[in-house]
Amino acid sequence: MTLNTLEEEIQEAIPKLFSMAKELTWDKIKSSLDNDYRKKVFNDPPMLHLKVAIPPWATDKKEKFNINWEHNEWLTKCDTTNIS
Hints:
This protein is of the alpha+beta class and about 80 residues long. It has helices at about 5, 35-40, 75, and strands at about 10-20, 25-30, 45-50.
């Protein structure tokens, strides 16, 4: 199923990127609008927000990082409070 096929039903799509490889990307699409809000925005164009977790050590917005960092247990348990 693609976003194009869901365009009639989804008003706001919020994909959460889970993992990436060279040829495969896993994500989850969340759409949870209540009925009143759905009626209010029905004729508006769909919104798309992509959420990517940024590691705590990436202080510079231009710094590259491995998008799969959350899946490496040793990276998620790093204490970054003492980094200088």
